[in-house]
């Protein structure tokens, strides 16, 4: 039986004993040791599923779905029965579910509806070392719950050695000098890990995407058997590396493609794999698409998995012997001065670089090729910054308020966010009318906004569309905004795609354009052929239809009148402004824009229909940070009075 071969199996009885006797167990073990897939099963076998459900939370959606599928398979039950999962807009669980995997965000939502999490007997917060926003919040919430529910068991699992902070955070021992009264404990799982030989670049490279391809080919040519895992920063890069490698692999057998040897690979070792195949893995893939990365290749083919940060710890891929690490990671960053949250690419932390290298030493000694110099490594920070300290806190604070935690400044944060970020969030919530003059949640609006499983600005746009009589339209727009990337532009048909896209575009901006696409999709009976012809993303639109249904359910529950404004795009844009007034910008003489409140210079992104059109005032949803600050999903504000109409206090503050 394979389950017994995992490193965690040796600790099974000890783990169960400690869970029985301590309120909190902090489980530390290398990635792949079996924490996520085995621990919930051990608890289930020990009957922890009879008094309640065993919850296991993950920071990433993709980990939730892949792990749930794996555990259901190991237990030989259909997914959704004893083993289920829940991610936003997708709940595959039932009354029979005893082990439930979910994102940490979903667990937090459950705590909103059931403040003591009374359905659960054990809550396992997995991948705690990632320190995601909702993981951190859940730690604080669980601490509160445990004071009222002594029988609740909490397991914190971490792939790195930073366990002490978690142990101390959860230790309710009133007499710290007497450790026999500790309520929390650390368990380390002895992993089987093999040494990893780490190689740095001698001189910095200018293009890590090309360098990664080059190094993969060299490994393939000179090194012995074993799969390769490449870390890139985002989906676009992953796709480029995958297609470049696969194109080259086609020509591989007949020619010798590589000559320069920057990594001093030993030319003597003969590889037994004759060809190679690259497969992607990143957050946006469906379960079927992901499975390619996990499946073994036919004999003689070397697998190259090209991944975003997600394979660093969230998912385990067997058979990896070589790791190529670009040394960068894409993270969310929030700047309280500009009130903008954006995605930026930054150098890794040393802890993360170590974790990535470790992926190579799981089955036998491996090698890690770092696409940066030892000197740059020396400049990496030791640990990554918790997401809590680099996020927009609007959602979190709204939900804490809805849980009755009025004084959010005094909430027990493992790493408290800056007072400035909290103040910004409170101010926006007040302007959205979710909080009253005393900082209390407004009824019913504030509470509905907290319950809505979307960003508060999007939620406000939807709830306010009642007054503008355009809920039909805003629902469709919200659904499309949630799925993103409805237009496709294949490299072999760029111009055709561009021409088709132009037919949907309207001068009011991206939102009305999305609405046109959505409506045309419905009018054409959700036809896949139609999507192909018009270069729009069939799967994304199908998902938008499903999401729209879910959002509509909430709207009905909140008794919002679902009406259509029949083409009155002013009404629709006013509804958008009523949620996104804080994200408004004014045209400058040089063609750039400046946000109205914080006066940040920004530019309309080239993918927007308003690119190069220069309307006087705009409202936008998203910020993308590169060398410039780009705004995306942009609509025209015909008259700046719209802003004072819907958010008088927000814009009068300033004066
Ligand atoms: O959580 P942790 O990183 O400690 O390990 P895990 O995710 O429970 O994985 C344990 C083992 O299960 C891995 O070594 C994989 O061999 C296998 N696994 C898999 O094959 N497919 C999955 N979707 C998840 C795990
Ligand atoms: Mg895990």
TrEMBL record:
Its EC number is 3.6.4.13. Keywords: ATP-binding, Helicase, Hydrolase, Nucleotide-binding. It is an enzyme of class 3 (hydrolase). SMART domains: DEXDc, HA2, HELICc. It comes from the Eukaryota. It catalyses: ATP + H2O = ADP + phosphate + H(+). GO terms for cellular component: catalytic step 2 spliceosome. Residues 16-179 form the Helicase ATP-binding domain. Residues 214-404 form the Helicase C-terminal domain. GO terms for molecular function: ATP binding; hydrolase activity; RNA binding; RNA helicase activity. Belongs to the DEAD box helicase family. DEAH subfamily. This is RNA helicase. It comes from Rhizoclosmatium globosum.
């Amino acid at each position: 039986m394979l389950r017994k071969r995992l490193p965690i199996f040796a600790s099974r009885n000890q783990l169960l004993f400690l869970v029985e006797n301590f309120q909190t167990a902090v489980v530390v073990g290398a990635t792949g040791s079996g924490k996520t897939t085995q621990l919930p099963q051990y608890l289930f076998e020990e009957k922890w599923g009879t008094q309640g459900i065993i919850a296991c939370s993950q920071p990433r959606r993709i980990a939730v779905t892949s792990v749930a599928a794996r555990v259901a398979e190991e237990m030989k039950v259909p997914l959704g029965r004893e083993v289920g999962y829940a991610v936003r807009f997708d709940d595959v669980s039932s009354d029979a579910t005893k082990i439930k995997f979910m994102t940490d965000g979903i667990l937090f939502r459950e705590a909103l509806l059931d403040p003591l999490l009374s359905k659960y007997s054990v809550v396992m917060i997995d991948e705690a070392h990632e320190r995601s926003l909702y993981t951190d919040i859940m730690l604080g919430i669980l601490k509160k719950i445990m004071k009222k529910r002594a029988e609740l068991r909490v397991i914190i699992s971490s792939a790195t050695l930073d366990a002490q902070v978690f142990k101390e955070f959860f230790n309710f021992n009133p007499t710290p000098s007497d450790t026999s009264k500790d309520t929390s404990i650390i368990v380390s799982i002895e992993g089987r890990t093999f040494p990893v030989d780490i190689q740095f670049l001698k001189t910095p490279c200018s293009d890590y995407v090309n360098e990664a391809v080059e190094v993969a080919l060299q490994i393939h040519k000179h090194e012995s058997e074993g799969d390769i895992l490449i870390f890139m920063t985002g989906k676009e890069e992953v796709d480029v590396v995958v297609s470049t490698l696969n194109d080259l692999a086609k020509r591989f057998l007949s020619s010798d493609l590589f000559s320069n040897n920057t990594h001093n690979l030993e030319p003597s070792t003969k590889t037994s794999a004759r060809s190679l195949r690259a497969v992607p893995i990143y957050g946006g893939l469906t379960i079927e698409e992901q499975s390619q990365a996990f499946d073994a290749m036919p004999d003689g083919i070397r697998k190259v998995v090209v991944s975003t940060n997600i394979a660093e710890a969230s998912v385990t891929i067997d058979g990896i012997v070589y790791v190529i690490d670009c040394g960068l990671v894409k993270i969310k960053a929030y700047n309280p001065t500009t009130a903008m949250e954006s995605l930026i690419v930054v150098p890794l932390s040393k802890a993360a670089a170590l974790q990535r290298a470790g992926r190579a030493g799981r089955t036998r000694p491996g090698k890690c090729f770092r696409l940066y110099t030892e000197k740059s490594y020396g400049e990496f920070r030791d640990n990554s910054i918790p997401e809590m300290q680099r996020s927009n806190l609007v959602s979190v604070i709204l939900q804490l308020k809805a849980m009755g935690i009025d004084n959010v400044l005094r909430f027990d944060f493992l790493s408290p966010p800056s007072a400035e970020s909290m103040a910004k969030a409170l101010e926006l919530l007040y302007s959205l009318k979710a909080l009253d003059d005393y900082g209390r949640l407004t009824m019913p609006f504030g509470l509905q906004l907290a319950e809505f499983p979307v960003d508060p600005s999007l939620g406000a746009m939807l709830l306010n569309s009642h007054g503008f009589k355009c809920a039909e339209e805003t629902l469709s727009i919200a659904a499309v905004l949630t799925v993103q990337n409805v237009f496709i532009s294949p490299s072999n048909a760029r111009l055709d795609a561009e021409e088709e896209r132009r037919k949907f575009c309207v001068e009011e901006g991206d939102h009305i354009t999305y609405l046109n696409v959505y409506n045309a999709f419905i009018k054409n009976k959700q036809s896949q052929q139609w999507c192909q012809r018009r270069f729009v993303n069939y799967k994304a639109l199908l998902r938008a239809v499903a999401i729209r249904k879910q959002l509509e359910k909430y709207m009905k529950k909140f008794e919002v009148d679902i009406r259509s404004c029949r083409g009155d795009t002013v009404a629709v844009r006013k509804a958008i402004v009523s949620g996104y007034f804080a994200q408004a910008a004014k045209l400058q003489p040089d063609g750039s824009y400046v946000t109205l409140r914080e006066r940040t210079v920004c530019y309309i992104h080239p993918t927007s229909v308003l690119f190069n059109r220069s309307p006087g005032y705009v409202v936008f949803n998203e910020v993308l940070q590169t060398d410039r600050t780009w705004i995306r999903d942009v609509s025209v504000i015909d008259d700046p009075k719209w802003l004072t109409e819907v958010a008088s206090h927000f814009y009068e503050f300033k004066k």
